[in-house]
Design a protein that fits this description.
By secondary structure, the protein is mainly α. It has helices spanning 3-8, 12-30, 40-52, 55-68, 83-100, 107-141, 143-147, 152-188, 193-217, 223-239, 246-269.
Length: 270
């Protein structure tokens, strides 16, 4: 697949829009709002829709990213790989690969997209560490002004930090959603059949790993029984509605209910 022909299939306005929305979601994750719209399951679905009208793929990869990194929030000095960046990049990679690659099944495509996106998320995490150091330097530049009583510089620091991250993430996502998509497509078609089969198996193992992460987070005296009961019920309900996504929906719903349970009753049992 030649790069020049591949890029002609990409709508530059769609790429720029998706990149801008992705950058805004990253700001919600770290700076302003914290309204949870930057969570992987929502961010993946939104970017999948904006990039290729593919909400379905965005929900699938977003649900997996949500489960795997649900216990790694960016709290305090800890900066984990960006689960939002992983979900958004995977949604774009997978939806694009689904268009350009004739595959027997979509599971290996989705898993490979997540694998590539994990690198993006790790890099975004490293950039956020650098961004915090940069913000500290900016704060010191205005420190004397603030001590002199010029409090308006506090707003200048905040605006500078937010705009700096917005511009950086916008450029980064624009590159990932264009050149990165081409590289993902080009590499996938060179993979041997054994790797494709392994990716397919690994894809179905990911929800189980994510469920184990959730289970480890919220273990209580009665938590094990509640976890099993809720998962069994959601498994049965969603298997009648959408058999190929019921495991993801059951896992996400279980995680949500378990969080509520732990928030309300968990402290009483400790």
């Amino acid at each position: 697949m030649e790069l020049q022909y591949f890029l002609t299939d990409i709508n530059i306005y769609t790429v720029l829009l998706a990149a801008f929305v992705g950058a805004l979601l990253e700001i919600d994750n770290y700076f302003v709002g914290m309204s949870l719209i930057s969570q992987p399951i929502f961010a993946g679905a939104l970017i999948g829709y904006l990039f290729n009208g593919d909400i379905y793929t965005g929900v699938l990869v977003g649900a997996i990213a949500q489960l795997l990194w649900i216990n790694a929030p960016p709290v305090g000095a800890y900066v984990p790989p960006s689960a939002s960046a992983i979900a958004m990049s995977a949604a774009v990679f997978a939806s694009s690969m689904g268009q350009h690659i004739q595959a027997d099944s979509k599971e290996p495509v989705l898993m490979f997209a997540l694998f590539c996106a994990a690198g993006v998320g790790y890099f975004v995490g490293l950039m956020d560490v650098w961004n915090r150091k940069f913000n500290t330097k900016v704060m010191h530049l205005f420190e004397d002004k603030i001590k002199a009583g010029r409090e308006s510089f506090i707003s200048a620091i905040q605006i500078t930090a937010i705009l700096g991250k917005l511009i950086r993430d916008f450029i980064g996502y624009a590159v990932v959603f264009s050149i990165g998509v081409y590289l993902a497509n080009a590499i996938y078609v060179t993979l041997p059949e054994q790797i494709i089969d392994a990716l397919s198996i690994a894809f179905w193992a990911m929800p189980a790993v994510g469920i184990a992460v959730v289970f480890d987070m919220f273990r209580t005296k009665t938590g094990e029984g509640l976890f099993a009961a809720v998962f069994a019920v959601t498994y049965v309900i969603f298997s009648f509605k959408k058999p190929d996504v019921f495991l993801f929906l059951a896992a996400v719903l279980t995680a949500s209910l378990f969080v509520v349970y732990n928030s309300v009753w968990g402290k009483k049992e400790q």
